[in-house]
Design goal:
Elements lengths: L25 E6 L5 H11 L6 E5 L13 H17 L4 E7 L3 H6 L7 H19 L4 E9 L5 E6 L2
Length: 160
């Protein structure tokens, strides 16, 4: 595992990326697994053309919106975030992403690997339904991210 050294300078970091004033009225709910973060950004920015989307990154992603008793608190927190974003940022579109071999499912929800993908697809549909109840005018989309044998992440559209 590669470890990076902590910078020792006392100067503040100055980003070269400018602040963007306009909102795009879209949010994405996905897993906080850092190994996929850049792939999620690439897909949303370049695949769906959603630059500067609002992020709701939590362990399991949309799983917390699927009504699992063991994820009740996470689900309520994520719904609260979506309510806020829908109101304050005038959301019109929500993208839900599940990913292959998600540890939230295997460790927290205790889903066997054989049943994992089917459970995640069912949960994407449940999460989409819950998001639509929040705001019936929201366009809600679902995607499943899988890692290929060449360490490429492929995003498949799922009917939700």
């Amino acid at each position: 595992m590669e470890r990076r050294e902590t910078p020792t300078t006392s100067e503040a970091f100055r980003s070269t990326v400018p602040y963007a004033q306009e909102r795009i009225h879209a949010a994405a709910v996905y897993c906080s697994d850092g190994r996929l973060g850049e792939a999620f950004d690439d897909f949303l920015d370049n695949g769906l053309r959603l630059p500067r989307y609002d992020r709701v990154a939590v362990p399991g992603g949309a799983a917390c919106l699927a009504g699992h008793f063991s994820a009740f608190r996470e689900g309520e927190a994520a719904m609260d975030q979506l309510r806020f974003l829908e109101d304050a940022h005038e959301l019109a579109r929500v993208v839900l992403i599940a990913h292959q071999k998600c540890a939230f499912y295997t460790h927290r929800l205790r889903v066997h690997e054989i049943d994992l993908r089917n459970r995640q697809l069912e949960d994407l549909a449940r999460a989409a339904s819950r998001a639509r109840r929040l705001c019936p005018s929201l366009a809600v989309e679902g995607y499943f991210a899988a890692v290929t044998d060449r360490d490429t992440v492929v995003f498949e559209r799922i009917d939700v």
